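Methods — Computational structure assignment.
A single polypeptide chain was analysed. Its primary sequence is given first, followed by the predicted tertiary structure written as structure tokens.
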Amino acid sequence: VKEPGTYCVPAGTTTINITIDSNDVVIVGETPDATIEGSIVINSGKMNVVLRSFRITGWSENPAVKDEGAHQLLIDGVTFDDDDGTGQGQSAPAILVSGAAYQPEVRNCTFRMTRTDQAVIELRGGMNAKIHDNRVIGSSTPAPSSFVFVADNVNYNGLEVYNNTANMLGCFLDVGKDGSLTNSVIRDNTATIYSSHGINVSDGANVEIRGNKLTVGWADETDALIYVAGTNVTVAGNTLDARLGLKAGGGVIVTAGTNTTISGNNVLATKNSPAIRIAQGGLNAIVENNEITGVVDPFIADGKGAAIYVKEINAQVRGNRIIGVEGANAHGVFLA
């Protein structure tokens, strides 16, 4: 596509790979079920590109949509379906954002990814992505591996992820090895988690994780529903259910970062690990006004454990309500 304009995806299935090399391009389905079997690439620097209201499948080893550095790409109401009739799934993410991509927005989309062990959306570059009001239909394989993946060695700034739902996936948000997330908000999402973490912010600064509802989907598979190791992270108002059980030695909320505030969360239940764990490196943590119920065998080491387990200095623990801690040598609050 080398000229501006509105391009219609006809009803039925069209097998095509599209490269958009122009500003002011809209690709829209004749009907929401109008299908592209193939992939779409938006070249670097392109502006005012909109993908709206069609279905895409069969992207194989290439992402279904690849943003190579566009300016404010909008993906609205598109259905990404990894079932292309072969039963094999796809070997690339549904959406890959790379280069200097500025403020891509993904909204109102449906991701049917029950066969593809890849991220739904991979952030390999750019900044200020807005990902909201989407639905993920996955499986417990897990497929997909994560909803949003900040790629290894990528320092991503200004991410907003909100009002998304996922019935089954590995991780909801995962920051890769030597990657980081800064000045970002993860809020009001709902997901069932089948792998190591629900939300994993392994490095970065100034991140808010608020109002999310995360549930453990498999017993003894998840380390933490929320894990943070950055600086100045707020974990507030989340509802977290780990009654099926975590891996021993984890925690429903775990911080190994500096200046973490853990406030007003509702931990419905946990088994095998604490509800809140201030791990080594979690300096100056504030743990306040959390509601914790149904804690069973919350052990970390030497047969000792607690609903709130603190192993770092300068922690402030106040105003928390703990109902029901079971297990030999288990405590409400334990200072290791």
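Note: DSSP finds no helices and 39 strands in the chain.
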